[in-house]
């Protein structure tokens, strides 16, 4: 896999927490940002495949939105464990989480992927807790993924999965204009650190309220391609409002200096853990006064840009 390795020199978790405190406080009636010992994230409400987010912390950006626009590149398919190897992750144990496009070639439909895997004593002993969100017969459908494959684009946070210090964020009652808590965090870090790249990965629960999500439908027929512009592509997506509780896995970056890496700056995918057909790409809350979040994040020490498309976009297509 074509891979570019970028060592990072991130601020401390305490410094990052301080940078996030005021923006969160300005956007929510109540918020906290602390550095804490990570709880066991395998338990409710998060159900991660790993207990924690610590140890050899890494982030990857694989493929990208240009693989969808103007025409989907159906040859762009990867296995999550192959990506783990490209990220130089330890075979004796670790995990990946994040957001990407699902294995259409396995399930028979284009879909959103909520990757959540772990392994012990070798990659061959992987636990797959990944979910898919797709449109079936015109309605959202969310289920466990039968595969460790992904396609087109994916953003991943990887670690040894150990417990350790993490940034804990809580927020409720939005009073500001920023509906997406992860976009708020990304902007806060960009304002604090400028061109210094700070890359976070983690999990948060939407504990209360209603939020907006999109789910990609199946690929358009050939006669409707290529997509002519971003508006046409965004109109092709299906949009949904889902009630909490929902678990969201997220990767975000404060900067891509000179846009040299063609990074997806923020990517968050979600799924309900209670059997409802609720999930997809997170956009933000609908009823701000009711929304409530709890999340845990860690900072990456290394970034891997894998299978970068030849053409990159000036901005994210999915706004």
From TrEMBL:
Entry keywords, A to Z: Hydrolase, Metal-binding, Nucleus, Zinc
Major localization class: nucleus
SMART domains from the UniProt entry: DUF1907
Subcellular location: Nucleus
GO cellular component: nucleus
Alphabetized GO MF terms: hydrolase activity, acting on ester bonds; zinc ion binding
InterPro entries referenced in this protein's UniProt entry, alphabetically: C11orf54_DUF1907
Organism this protein belongs to: Paraphaeosphaeria sporulosa
Domain DUF1907: 19-306
Domain of life: Eukaryota
Lineage: Eukaryota, Fungi, Dikarya, Ascomycota, Pezizomycotina
Protein name per the record: DUF1907 domain-containing protein
Entries under CDD domains matching the protein: DUF1907
Assembly information from the UniProt record: Monomer.
Keyword Nucleus in annotation: yes
